[in-house]
Amino acid sequence: MAFELFGRLHKELSITGSAIYEVVLAISERVNRKAQIIRLHWQASVLLQRIDEVTAELGRQIADHVDRRLSVQTDQDSTLATLDTSLSHAVTRAETLKQAQAQVDGQIRELKLEAIHEDTIKLQQDLSLRSARIERLTIVRHAAAVGQSIAAMPHASSVHIASVLRGPFLLAPSDSLIFRPDDIVVLLGLESELDPFVTWFTSQRPLKTPTTEFA
Question: Which tens digit of pLDDT belongs to each residue from 119-145?
Answer without folding.
Answer: 777 777 888 888 888 888 999 988 999
